[in-house]
Amino acid sequence: MSEEFPGYRGQALRFLKKAGAEIGDVIRVTKDGEKWEGILIPRSEIGDEKHIIIKLKSGYNVGVRIESTTRIEKVGKGIKPAFTPPSLPKQKAGLPKVAIVSTGGTIASRVDYRTGGVRPALSASDLYSVVPELSEIAVVDTEILFSVYSENIASKHWIETAKTVTEHIKKGVAGIVVAHGTDTLGYTAAALSFALQNLPVPVIMVASQRSADRPSSDAATNLLGAVKAAAAAPFAEVVVAMHETVSDESIVFHRGSKVRKCHTSRRDTFKSINTSPLARMEDDKITMLIKSYGKRDPSRKLNLKPDFDDRVALLKFHPDLNPQIIDWYVEKGYRGIILEGTGLGHVGNYCFSAIQRAIEKDVVVAMTSQCIWGRLDMNVYDQGRDLLAMGVLSLEDMLPETALVKLMWVLGQTTNTEEAKRLLTENIANEISPRTLHEKVGY
Amino acid sequence: MSEEFPGYRGQALRFLKKAGAEIGDVIRVTKDGEKWEGILIPRSEIGDEKHIIIKLKSGYNVGVRIESTTRIEKVGKGIKPAFTPPSLPKQKAGLPKVAIVSTGGTIASRVDYRTGGVRPALSASDLYSVVPELSEIAVVDTEILFSVYSENIASKHWIETAKTVTEHIKKGVAGIVVAHGTDTLGYTAAALSFALQNLPVPVIMVASQRSADRPSSDAATNLLGAVKAAAAAPFAEVVVAMHETVSDESIVFHRGSKVRKCHTSRRDTFKSINTSPLARMEDDKITMLIKSYGKRDPSRKLNLKPDFDDRVALLKFHPDLNPQIIDWYVEKGYRGIILEGTGLGHVGNYCFSAIQRAIEKDVVVAMTSQCIWGRLDMNVYDQGRDLLAMGVLSLEDMLPETALVKLMWVLGQTTNTEEAKRLLTENIANEISPRTLHEKVGY
């Protein structure tokens, strides 16, 4: 990879150098009789050796695969990106301090209008220039922890994020905002919910479905809502701040252990499952929607428990699922399997003996439902009772994704299987809703 | 297993025989200082060797594990089940013929009040005795094809069901009702949607969330709605007939390729995803909700394509997913993998090389989204474009479960990989919604 050609390597890089093109230049690519013309933009991560990305006049980015017969011509000189930061706005005295920790994702990026490329935009000055209202709400301290697409986020990133949040809390901030891509935000929110216990101040995870350069972007609204909540919300829990509906009128705060991405593109993609969101912000006013919650109390001592064991699988059951996959996980040394079963908590009886073998080898096996909404009841049908008798744990109304993260966390806390089973079925971060709670379903 | 003790074997059977207890008798079980008293009921499938099931006075069934120290006493003589069928009601002349094919599930069973046990209740006389209104609507021909919990239904059952439906259609019925458990009904509905092409009459799949002996049962309402639609609906497609809301006021008909179980216990558990239901029945009147549909036309010649290849996996991506699982499937001779990715169609980049290897070995790899709602767009981010460039197919707004079933079906139709890819991405049974369709989200 080259400094001047961020993200490019191999054949793609050679072709660009041969054409004398630089990032920001207008180029024309000709291949198999087809033509693309646009601005050569940097790749935000190291790509394969074959593709170059150009921003077309329409504003869309397109990736073109370079073949031996492909021709690249430079047809216009680009304006080079200038990275001089704009000057910071004057800070008001006496505002609360808020830390913004960025892990990547659309909200943490900003299209550079000169190159069309996306780059991390989380210096304080970048933020103030995109969302000037921030300077009225809080003194913002920013940290770019990672800059990765959220589908690449794994448990090692959860651990780093939890530790970084803890450091900022120790500095005495009023609250933390964690910027993250939407794709696996639900998983990371669950991870932080278990890793950050006894929080003194709120940890507000935030994302956007559309980048800040698009007219319908939800980035500024969500970020403003998140910073306001970090500065002043009465709760001290890990939550996800996103649009409540497709309108910009309200932001809701979902508990990190109960939230799921439910739509590929809508701005109200995140939903609290089997519970209400924790709180809503409308016209700058925060209303609590759940009465019992962890209250803001800066004197409280945070209990950081950042360890996760990655030898846990989430296995979605389906007709004709090969039960040997369970044996394979056991052979590979996995310590836990979350089954995403059907209905009230079932899998085909052709999986029973493999499950039995896993449990006999001290693997923790627990059940959730691919229905997503509703609660398990493995006592209704005899196959459910058979699974319980085998030692499969019923995880009530816990989300499959949260159950995976929780079991990874539980096995990071203890090597004792019985203790792990006890922790997994105990309600630690509101991941199990009380039975009395009204079960509002879906959107 | 014993004829007199259906479902019992091994230690449980020995203990029952020793106590001189028979099915239907009142027994008392004492174990570790605890006591259970109730009617000994048959098991609907062959259970393990350890459990006996008794119906408590409260009406609940409980499974008790037999240990060496367990004591069973017979404390009352049961009334034996009498299987003399009630006489059939008089059939009205000139009513349409409807076939009801049962594969099992709650709707197809009936609690025997004398034994407390559940048994298949799908002789015509059974049905008429449970739902006497049926005799006003249709002349019903019934067939008990299987009697299995739907989590045990696999592709071999889909094949049998498709063939059986075809036989009934050849006999000239006005429509077919297929009774099925709710757990995997969505998968089977998709399977029949691909296997039964060019339908002359409707195939109405039906289920219930609560058995007919419970006061809040949805069994009678759903069955009546299904039979009415089979007899008289204007459409000739594979649909799922279930409650539209928690009230009994309307039944909706979901297209088999677009429907999913979304709640563990609610009566309106089935939802059409990324589309409207095909039709609604209210006050016996059927209203079409989608304008373009397959019309009833008894002269049309059904095209049965019942073959499925079970060497296809549905793999739900999650953080820290072990990419070796993909290599394992390839080694096992799998021909297709449906990825249930994140967001617009992504998986962690640590899975890329395993996906590449699978594609190089001629395995069909296709993407769907675990968001459930919304459509893929793998052109937005460069990692999505990288996957496309590798040869991963983007399945638009197809449900992951439908995609699995479809790929199993596609690979049952052709051994040619290119032809399989073409079929998989072609819209065959409305499994891909047109982009112009209003995307109503969730419940």
CATH fold assignment of the largest domain in chain A: Rossmann fold
The rough form of chain A would be described as globular
Side-by-side strand order of the widest sheet of chain A:
9-6-10-12-13-14-17-18
The structure class of chain A reads alpha/beta
Q: What is the first-to-last residue Cα distance of chain A?
A: 45 Å
β-strand percent of chain A reads 15-25%
Helical stretch count of chain A? 11
Task: Using a beta-carbon cutoff below 8 angstroms, give the protein chain pair with the largest interface and the number of residues from each chain.
Answer: A-B, 84 and 83 residues
Question: Any idea what the radius of gyration of chain A is?
Answer: 24 Å
Helix content of chain A: 25-40%
CATH class of the largest domain in chain A: Alpha Beta
Low-confidence stretches of chain A: 81-86, 111-117, 437-443
Give the beta-strand count of chain A. Answer: 23
The total tally of domains of chain A equals 3
Could you state the CATH homologous superfamily of the largest domain in chain A? L-asparaginase, N-terminal domain
The biggest sheet of chain A, with number of strands, parallel, antiparallel or mixed sense and barrel status, is: 8 strands, mixed
State the assembly state of the protein chains: homodimer
Please, what is the average pLDDT of chain A? 88
Which key terms come to mind for this protein?
homodimer; 11 helices; Rossmann fold; alpha/beta; disordered C terminus; 8-stranded mixed sheet; 443 residues; SH3 type barrels
